[in-house]
């Protein structure tokens, strides 16, 4: 079975098929990068097993393909905090390749999203570095944010953006 077939199976109406696909992908994380977007969507699956297998696989993935960044940016604003978290995480793993999405990530940091999503968006901006300069105003507005973890993440991202060589 081809890896893209497994990615397609993650959106099946049959929960057993989704579970099987998610489990097989978790056992083949080294080739699962091709279906990274489908895995992020799978994190939001109503079935806990599917979601957990998708998370386990995403934990092993590296940098996403540049072609995945646009669909990931759409998922980054998901109402499902877990989906948004993993979309932002993969965007951050892309580093400077994701620079064109810096404004979106800055908006997420300054939004009313779950704190772990906001922190992760700040982390992603720090990974992008100086190319994320467009997000400085949003990060600055969050330096005194609650919870403190968001404020610390924003400050750390600002340091990475402003003090990189």
Supply database-style keywords.
single chain, 165 residues, mainly alpha, 10 helices, elongated, ARM-like, HEAT repeat domain-containing protein, ARM-type_fold
Largest sheet: none
Along the chain, the helix and strand elements come as: HHHHHHHHHH
Percent of residues in helices comes to 55-70%
Radius of gyration: 16 Å
Q: Quickly count the helices.
A: 10
Mean pLDDT: 95
Low-confidence stretches: none
Anisotropy-based shape = elongated
Number of DSSP-assigned strands: 0
Work out the strand percent. under 5%
Pfam families: HEAT_2
Protein name: HEAT repeat domain-containing protein
Q: What report would you give on this structure?
A:
The protein has 165 residues and is mainly α. The protein has 10 helices and no strands. The protein has helices at residues 3-9, 15-27, 36-43, 48-60, 69-75, 81-93, 102-109, 115-128, 136-141, 148-162. α2 (15-27) packs parallel to α4 (48-60), α5 packs antiparallel against α6 and α6 (81-93) packs parallel to α8 (115-128). The longest helix is centred in the last third of the chain and has 15 residues, at 148-162. The N and C termini lie far apart (46 Å). The model has no long low-confidence stretch (mean pLDDT 95).
